[in-house]
């Protein structure tokens, strides 16, 4: 066949369709008033049919989720037995098809790229899904080709890479075509496919909204799926092969001619060039006779006017662009009817209705569908397909009969004969289902639904109620003003008509990682095939052999999140529970696990990669790297990785220019140090490095952090905490204390809170005595101009409890002093400010403060009268000369004993100790203390040794 | 005849159309219906080329086709029809159109109020005649529902949920047994409903909880929920349709400029969005912002412009009428409107530039808010 002209003008040899063409022309003239565009379009439909029929390769037009197409496909394949089947499917997805037999449909073929390279789309992991349902023509073709020896299946559509190369360019010009009719469940349903781009075979839908709206309005239907079902699907279900083919091409041609010439159409034309080029390549390479082949493609493409879209045409200068450097990974993920509906903006329930129709036809019409051997979850279709093909299959290949096409186009659609029994069953079942869902429905409702459905169908010119009529009738009769349960009647109808079937990917089709996970979780009794949430109880004390499986769950928790949820139990630094309880829903979230499989072969490998990636991310902070190191330590137990990450943490810390992450760094590093010390392994080298680097780093940053407004009190306090708490380690590793002293000396904060913090720091370094600190606070309180900022000082002191915990008594004193000394007129308005400041800035330190206050103040109100604050007592001795001051040992214990001397004496008497209360100067090192006396007598007894020591010390002093 | 009525019922207003439809209707008619279900649909929703009618039938009710189909089918079945929805969604209008098309009489109406009694649903007595002649069928005053039963017509019950439960319950036996017995009479004491009798009730979803329907009554009604029209295009059509009718009624020759209609529709869309986003009732206008309310605002503005203005509709007048209609509570509603005017209308006016309708709308609204505050 030579290339036919694209538009208008009857090609030579179009005689069979001449009468139809003439009638359409007349009709167009009648409607439009004159032969014009309408006539061109209508006549063009016939040309399309004519052209498609003359193509030596049998073009088999299909529409997505069309049981009629699937039926016609199955019939045709049985009849023709082609040697090669070309399918409109991304060519690189073909290797996956054989894996379909291990899965329960619907599943989706997926191509996944975590790091796109050279593609115009905006980064992020890219994913393409092509869902496969049982009630589809493509499944029939796939099953036929894979199950029949000697038949080749050739996917001819562009590769996944080109999907993004071409479509991204198209989408740059227009927004995404989001579906309008996505219902409540759509978001939830779409989750099954993730953020994937959907590709499917036979997308047939008007390409501009007005046309679709017009068709829906005129067709008296609500949405596109219903229109298709009523006007194409149902009449075609009983049509013979030729009528089916002609009608589908005609419909495809009509939509094609009515679609706007935009970038999307240009992509479609390029795809057609691609597909036909692949077909020609295959034909010439294998020498297959074109008559022995079938090309399964969308009706839209079957009516292609593109010149190169023919097995006999040339390439016409079309070149297939080379793939980008993106590495694509392929796999199968579970899909579901509702996910497909959401992905392709179909009406809710459309795919379920399609599969119900398919099942019905298969069981009723003696069509023997093809099925992959070993296909799991035999649907209704599979089970009921036992009826042998008899009368229908006997007909041999028939010559195209153009008369049928004109009959189809002129007569109203011929519908299925009434199927009363089916409708009755639906009504009864629905009422039962509604009752289970809280509706007060009864048999009377079943009768009303039946009656209403029949009446509605009559009103809508349908011989028998369609599922959509049934749904409307059910809503009318059963739905009242409120929905009693979770599901409304519309949803119940969908469930009744087959419901949302969710597919799953079989063990053998899963990536190695998922298989490995399934194997390793087996001891716990986790079944990845179950779609429920499984409660797993682990008792590591009773069954220590489960430890690896439990650890795997923790790793999965870290990688996947929600599908693996610990209910009880912990796995953190120094916190490993012996009993755990888990909620595992890996079966339901199979996709996430399968996508994890694209990243590596085992969970450990993926986790290591993720941790490394996080640590070497340009945006990584010291805190985030420490977190990764902690995860590595807890979950992977790989010292080498921890050391790597630790070294990276040192690098990152040294290059940080702000103190923003200081509190987090401090918290994490302290925990790590405690862990290493606690496990007896000692600090690893990287930790020592970190201490050294941190000491130097924070010393350097300290003066600036004190001065800058951006750095908060919390951050500075955390820096000081790091410096003070790890000081001994740092000094032991060769750091210089001078550095810290200098840094503190260079700090000149302006913010009151930071000033207080600095004072506390200087106190810790011994540069500021407590008396002086006390005097400064007294000064602040005495100055009415400064009093309003006193809460800021207090918040600084409270923060200082972190780095300088021994300051707690003083902070209590400072707060108490404020309450004691400030007059009410100042104090009362000031109180809310104080509360607010403390809550905001010193939240974490409050417990320590309150504990200290509890220790300082008497426990009962009655004791308050006789109570003298400790700080007042410290100053008192000089005044009254009382020897009651606490002994040099100091501290709360000594104070307590001192306060209750009588009891102490009594206890001492019982124990047989006769000691005396020491005076105020009788501290541990004082001359009056028994220890000092003992030491003196010892020196007296061995003067030679003492002299030698003295000489030695003398000598050293001389040398230094 | 329509000239002598302020507002003619649908069967009078469209008498000619109904008669024509009846003459060409060859479809199967349930009971004693005047029109077949398909023709009822065509009457309410307007004709389509596919209906094969020679003349065009105008659309009278704007909304989803399914609602009308479900309503018609319900009337052909054994159950009553309950139209439920927000105020101003066209429930009563649909009920009127349906009864006009089915039995040619939409005036058999019982208005549900707190004062509605069982007598209003069943029958009452002509007291003087009872005294003079004793109780007889002559002295009986049938309710509109009873009349509908006797004639095999459609009886309407407006605002069903406003009437008390005992009154509602009187409907149960009428809907299930389809007769009313009159125990006061010794003979001829049962009124049986003729074929074709049906009940259309309307209920306001905002009144939910005032007098909840019993489940027995619920079971005897099919509920059809009428949503607020949110489709801009159909809303514009409704407003245009109703306003034209109004102008004709008042003999006003006044053109509603499309730009002003746009301003009105846009303001309502914005106000609805604001209401939907509000978190408490205080931040929400009391009005349901229905299409009926839009028509009310436009009607008000047109009449104002016609009688007090220069016989043209101005944006300022429209704004004043909008504020006047929607500000029901002070200060809450006024505060919301004030916020709307400054936050939404003002930027629109600024975007549009001098001389546009939004500018004038802005000024008019500000003045109206000021006058009310």
Automatic annotation (TrEMBL), chain A:
Q: Region entry Disordered: which residue ranges? A: 389-408, 874-895
Q: Where is the composition biased (Low complexity)?
A: 389-403, 876-886
Q: What is this protein called?
A: DUF5682 family protein
Organism encoding this protein = Nocardiopsis suaedae
TrEMBL record, chain B:
Which SUPFAM superfamilies is this protein grouped with? P-loop containing nucleoside triphosphate hydrolases (SSF52540)
**Record-annotated ATPase dynein-related AAA domain positions:** 80-221
Pfam families xref list: AAA_5
Name the InterPro entries on file: ATPase_dyneun-rel_AAA, CbbQ/NirQ/NorQ/GpvN, P-loop_NTPase
Instruction: Report the protein name in the record.
Output: AAA family ATPase
The organism is Nocardiopsis suaedae
């Amino acid at each position: 066949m030579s290339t036919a002209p694209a538009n208008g003008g009857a090609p030579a040899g179009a005689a069979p369709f001449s009468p139809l063409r003439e009638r359409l022309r007349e009709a167009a003239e009648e409607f439009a008033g004159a032969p014009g565009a309408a006539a061109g379009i209508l006549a063009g439909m016939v040309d399309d049919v004519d052209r498609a029929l003359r193509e030596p390769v049998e073009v088999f037009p299909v529409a997505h989720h069309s049981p009629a197409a699937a039926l016609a496909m199955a019939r045709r394949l049985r009849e023709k037995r082609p040697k090669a089947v070309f399918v409109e499917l991304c060519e690189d997805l073909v290797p996956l098809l054989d894996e379909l037999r291990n899965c329960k449909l619907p599943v989706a073929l997926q191509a996944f790229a975590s790091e796109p390279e050279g593609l115009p789309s905006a980064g992020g992991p890219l994913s393409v899904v092509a869902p496969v349902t049982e009630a589809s023509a493509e499944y029939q073709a796939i099953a036929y080709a894979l199950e029949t020896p000697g038949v080749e299946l050739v996917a001819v559509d562009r590769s996944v890479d080109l999907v993004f190369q071409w479509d991204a360019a198209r989408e740059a010009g227009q927004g995404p075509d989001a579906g309008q009719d996505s219902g409540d469940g759509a978001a939830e349903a779409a989750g099954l496919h993730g953020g994937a781009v959907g590709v499917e075979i036979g997308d047939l839908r008007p390409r501009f909204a007005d046309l679709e709206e017009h068709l829906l309005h005129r067709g008296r239907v609500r949405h596109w799926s219903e229109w298709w079902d009523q006007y194409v699907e149902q009449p075609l279900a009983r049509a013979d092969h030729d009528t089916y083919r002609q009608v589908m091409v005609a419909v495809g041609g009509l939509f094609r001619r009515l679609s706007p010439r935009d970038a999307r159409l240009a992509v479609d034309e390029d795809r057609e060039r691609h597909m036909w080029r692949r077909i020609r390549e295959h034909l010439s390479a294998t020498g297959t006779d074109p008559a022995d082949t079938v090309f399964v493609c969308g009706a839209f493409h079957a009516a292609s006017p593109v010149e190169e879209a023919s097995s006999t045409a040339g390439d016409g200068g079309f070149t297939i662009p080379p793939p980008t450097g993106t590495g694509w990974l392929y796999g199968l993920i579970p899909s579901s009817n509702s996910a497909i509906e959401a992905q392709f903006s179909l009406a809710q329930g459309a795919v379920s209705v399609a599969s119900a129709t398919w099942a019905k036809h298969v069981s009723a019409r003696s069509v023997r569908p093809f099925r992959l051997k070993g296909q799991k979850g035999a649907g209704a279709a599979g089970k009921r397909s036992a009826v042998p093909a008899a009368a229908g299959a006997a007909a041999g290949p028939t010559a195209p009969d153009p008369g049928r096409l004109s009959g189809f186009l002129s007569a109203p659609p011929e519908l299925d004969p009434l199927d009363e029994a089916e409708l009755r069953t639906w009504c009864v079942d629905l009422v039962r289902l509604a009752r289970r869902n809280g509706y007060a429905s009864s048999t009377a409702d079943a009768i009303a639904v039946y009656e209403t459905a029949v009446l509605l169908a009559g009103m809508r010119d349908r011989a028998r109620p369609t599922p959509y009529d049934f749904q409307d009738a059910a809503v009318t009769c059963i739905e009242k003003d409120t929905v009693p349960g979770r599901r409304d009647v519309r949803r119940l109808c969908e469930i009744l008509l087959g419901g949302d079937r969710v597919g799953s990917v079989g063990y053998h089709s899963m990536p190695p990682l998922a298989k490995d996970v399934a194997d390793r979780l087996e001891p716990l009794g986790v079944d990845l095939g179950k779609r429920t949430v499984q409660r797993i109880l682990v008792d590591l004390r009773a069954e220590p052999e489960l430890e690896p499986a439990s650890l795997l769950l923790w790793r999965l928790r870290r990688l996947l999140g929600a599908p693996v949820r610990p209910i009880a139990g912990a796995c953190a630094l120094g916190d490993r529970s012996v009993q755990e309880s888990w909620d595992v829903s890996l079966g339901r979230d199979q996709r996430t696990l399968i996508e994890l499989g694209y990243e590596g072969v085992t969970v450990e490998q993926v986790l290591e990669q993720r941790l490394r990636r996080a640590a070497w991310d340009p945006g990584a902070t010291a805190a985030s790297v420490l977190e990764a190191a902690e995860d590595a330590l807890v979950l992977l137990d790989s010292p080498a990785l921890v050391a790597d990450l630790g070294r990276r943490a040192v690098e990152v810390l040294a290059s940080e220019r702000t103190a923003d992450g200081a509190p987090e760094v401090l918290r994490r590093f302290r925990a790590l140090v405690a862990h290493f010390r606690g496990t007896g392994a000692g600090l690893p080298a990287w930790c020592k490095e970190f201490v050294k680097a941190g000491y130097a780093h924070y010393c350097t940053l300290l003066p600036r952090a004190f001065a800058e407004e951006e750095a908060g009190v919390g951050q500075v306090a955390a820096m000081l905490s790091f410096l003070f708490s790890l000081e001994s380690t740092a000094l032991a590793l060769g750091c210089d204390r001078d550095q810290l002293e200098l840094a503190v000396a260079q700090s000149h904060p302006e913010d009151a809170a930071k000033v207080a913090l600095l004072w506390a720091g200087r106190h810790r370094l011994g540069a500021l005595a407590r008396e002086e600190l006390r005097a400064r606070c007294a000064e602040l309180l005495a100055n009415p101009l400064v009093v309003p900022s006193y809460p800021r000082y207090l918040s600084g002191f409270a923060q200082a409890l972190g780095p300088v915990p021994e300051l707690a008594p003083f902070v209590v004193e400072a707060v108490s002093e404020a309450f004691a000394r400030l007059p009410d007129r100042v104090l009362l308005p000031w109180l809310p400010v104080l509360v607010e400041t403390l809550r905001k800035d010193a939240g974490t330190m409050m417990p320590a403060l309150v504990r200290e206050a509890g220790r300082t103040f008497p426990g009962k109100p009655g004791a308050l009268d006789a109570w003298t604050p400790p700080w007042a007592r410290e100053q008192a001795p000089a005044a009254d000369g009382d020897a009651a001051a606490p002994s040099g040992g100091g501290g709360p214990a000594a104070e307590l004993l001192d306060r209750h001397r009588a009891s102490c004496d009594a206890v001492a008497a019982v124990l047989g100790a006769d000691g005396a209360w020491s005076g105020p100067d009788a501290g541990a090192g004082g001359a009056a203390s028994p220890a000092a006396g003992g030491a003196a007598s010892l020196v007296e007894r061995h003067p030679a040794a003492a002299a030698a020591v003295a000489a030695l010390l003398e000598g050293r002093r001389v040398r230094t | 005849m329509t000239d002598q009525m302020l507002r003619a019922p649908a069967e009078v207003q469209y008498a000619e159309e109904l008669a024509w439809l009846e003459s060409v209707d060859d479809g199967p008619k349930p009971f004693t219906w005047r029109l077949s279900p398909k023709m009822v649909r065509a009457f309410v929703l307007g004709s389509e080329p596919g209906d094969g009618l020679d003349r065009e039938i105008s659309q009278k009710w704007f909304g989803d086709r399914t609602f009308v189909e479900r309503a018609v089918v319900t009337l052909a079945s054994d159950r009553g029809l309950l139209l439920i929805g927000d105020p101003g969604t066209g429930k009563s209008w649909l009920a009127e159109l349906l009864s006009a098309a089915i039995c040619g009489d939409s005036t058999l109406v019982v208005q549900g109020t707190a004062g509605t009694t069982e007598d209003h649903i069943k029958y009452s007595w002509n007291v003087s005649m009872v005294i003079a002649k004793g109780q007889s069928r002559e002295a009986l005053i049938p309710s509109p529902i009873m009349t509908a039963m006797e004639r095999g017509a459609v009886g309407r019950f407006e605002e069903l949920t406003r009437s008390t439960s005992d009154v509602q319950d009187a409907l149960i036996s009428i809907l299930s047994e389809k007769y009313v017995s009159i125990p006061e009479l010794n003979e001829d004491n049962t009124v049986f409903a003729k074929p074709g009798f049906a009940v259309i009730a309307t209920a306001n979803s905002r009144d939910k909880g005032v007098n909840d329907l019993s489940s027995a009554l619920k079971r005897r009604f099919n509920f059809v929920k009428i949503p607020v029209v949110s489709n801009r295009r159909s809303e514009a059509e409704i407003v245009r349709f109703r306003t034209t009718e109004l102008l004709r009624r008042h003999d006003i020759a006044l053109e509603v400029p499309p730009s002003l209609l746009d301003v009105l529709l846009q303001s309502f869309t914005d106000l609805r969005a604001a209401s939907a986003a509000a978190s408490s009732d205080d931040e929400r206008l009391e009005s349901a912002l229905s299409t009926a309310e839009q028509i009310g605002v436009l009607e008000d503005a047109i009449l104002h412009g016609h009688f007090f203005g220069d016989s043209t509709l101005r944006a300022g007048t429209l704004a004043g009428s909008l504020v006047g209609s929607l500000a029901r509570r002070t200060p809450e509603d006024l505060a919301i409107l004030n916020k709307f005017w400054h936050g939404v209308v003002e930027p629109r006016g600024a975007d549009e530039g001098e001389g546009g309708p939004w500018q004038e709308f802005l000024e008019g609204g500000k003045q109206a808010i000021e006058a009310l505050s």
